[in-house]
Amino acid sequence: MRHRATGLALLLAAALAATAVPATVAAAAPAAPADAPAVRPPHAAGPGTDHAADDPFTADRTNWFRQDRFGMFIHFGAYSNLEGEYRRPDGTTCRDAEWIKRQCDIPRDAYEKQAQNFNPADFDAKAVVKAAKDAGMRYIVITSKHHEGYAMWPTKVNDWNLRDHSSFDKDRDILAELKKASDDAGIELGFYYSIWDWHDKDFADPATFPAYEKRMYAQLKELVDTYDPALLWFDGEWDTDNPHNPWTAEHGERLEAYLRGLDPGLVINNRVGKRRVVDGDYGTPEQEIPGAPVDGQLWESCMTLNGHWGYARYDQDWKSAQTLTRNLLATTSRSGNYLLNVGPDARGRIPQPSVDRLRQMGDWLREDGQGQAVFGARYGGLVEEPSWGSVSRKGDTLYAAVTRWPAPGAALHLTARTAFTVRSARVLGSDQKVTVTKAGDGFDVRPAGAATDDTATVIELAVDPGPTARPGTGTGLKQEIFDNATLAGTPRITRTDATLNHAWKYTGSPAASIPADRFSIRWTGTVEPRRTETYTLTTVSDDMARVWIDGKLVIDSWTPHEPRLDKARVALTAGRRHTVRVEYAEQTGEAHLKLLWSAPGQEQQVIPRSQLHTR
Q1: Other C-beta atoms within 10 Å of 407: how many?
Q2: For position 46, what pLDDT does the model report?
Q3: CATH of the domain at 563
């Protein structure tokens, strides 16, 4: 199970604890509990606040998420009761799934009436977890509340929930059942929660939105305190109407800080804010797989088994297990996670075609140890992604998942991105000979026999990536902080900064004496790589940033901008201390600055303090 964060994160937890105040609720709902949290916790932020608790690329807090790779998404709500079809009073039928209320323009009273009949009596948490386990999935994320606003747990905040507004057994709690079954199986459990709410009367009006926001905080506190989720998966943060969505980046900052105060170990997706690289712990591409590792942020691709998230009885266009397994291999080879959705029907049952495909995926993962190419694996790095499959890496082993097997005697070519050697190679599940020879810009891999699997045949290559210097003994860079945005005059503060990983956001700043707007910082010292390679340096910044290496300006992003990434390729030598200077300026609004590096032999991460020296 997951490890909780310590140190700075726990200090933030104490600082961010909310004072309990009564929450205002809509007229149709009962009063919120007296311990509903305030929207703006006192002392949560201000000059000197830094919201960056750790580096998600390396933190213990996110380790399970980076290793597990494969999860089950469950879309389940009052919409499931309609099973994708709404018959209008005029006799016509409108089709949709989880968006059916909005897309079919179902009147509020009619939607509430159908929800009163919702009775997922056949929901079986053990069967759900077994389906996930059989698939090889390591975590589950279920919709606790979708855009319709309907809570799938017995919330005390309102009566628009599965206990109080359904025909379901009042003594059952499906989230509690799923939590126990997941814990028993060693699977992490997370909750989806929609910010956008079609049902709450206070949501759409900015004047009344704070009342909704208090209820949202109270519900999220219920979820965290009652079920101890490993992850929160937000949605519905985008600008839209019908109904109008008032959510802003400032709201996201406040919510994320509050949640990290409740539980510093939570993993939170970027839709807690505005789906940007500076929001949450990881990005969320939907129904697509990025063509390369995502810069600046962990990522997870969520996808459907057919064409819908919620259950739609008419949608029988199921993806094949082969396609799904290859999707999983592709995401892993680019250091991503794969969150694959199932939609239970009105009775709470996962459709059999979903169960069948998940089991087939698990069969592939278990056969001959092929799951080694996924679990704990990441971007191949040392080689370019080939046209004939995908390549992932775990330590000093590459796993080439071949989806286009070569003709007899032909070779699979691997293009090298850096110097390394191949010590040995074998086909998992076969004793056929595999020869590897240097060829052109890389290696030719020639298996002697046939493919072992039509989905993908895995060739395991033991590699020697070359020498790596010992970890450095650095303590960080010299940091000079100015109380103006132009680096002018004498620094207000001079100190050592352990690592350039900062999220001051709207309300924070680098020190209590520095205002949240119009400040600037200069970092100087040296950076010492452990490998001799061409590195990609990446800044995540808002407002302005620039970087010099060995006196050369390599990143120049000195025009005020919204949160963005800038990159430069720089040749660095192992054990050598290259001079580095980083300058940053904040005008108004948000403030962020991160400095990451990556290379064929170096995973993407914030440059660690051990490799940074004040001189």
Answers
A1: 6
A2: 86
A3: 3.90.182.10
The whole-model pTM stands at 0.94
pLDDT at 60 over 90: yes
Answer yes or no: do 304 and 166 share one domain. Answer: yes
Residue 425's φ and ψ, nearest 5 degrees, are -150, 145
Q: Which domain holds residue 131?
A: 8-43+66-373
Per-residue pLDDT tens digits for 530-588: 999 999 999 999 999 999 999 999 999 999 999 999 999 999 999 999 999 999 999 99
Assess whether pLDDT exceeds 70 at residue 301.
Answer: yes
**Of 464, 495, 517, which residue sits at a domain end?**
464
Assigned domain for 49 exists = no
Between 46 and 413, whose confidence is greater? 413
Helix and strand numbers, DSSP H then E, in the chain:
10, 30
* Domain membership flag for residue 470: no
Token pair 């059989």 is found at 134
Beta-carbon neighbour count of residue 316 at 10 Å?
10
| Residue 183, phi then psi, degrees to nearest 5 | -60, -45
Cis-peptide, bond into residue 281, ω within 30° of zero: no
Whether 53 maps to a domain, the answer reads no
- Mark whether 106 and 170 lie in a shared domain: yes
At 63 the pLDDT is 98
Shared domain for 427 and 530, answered yes or no, is no
- What is 45-80 written as a DSSP string? SSTT-----S-TTT-GGGHHHHHH-EEEEE--SGGG
The CA distance from 416 to 421, in Å, is 10
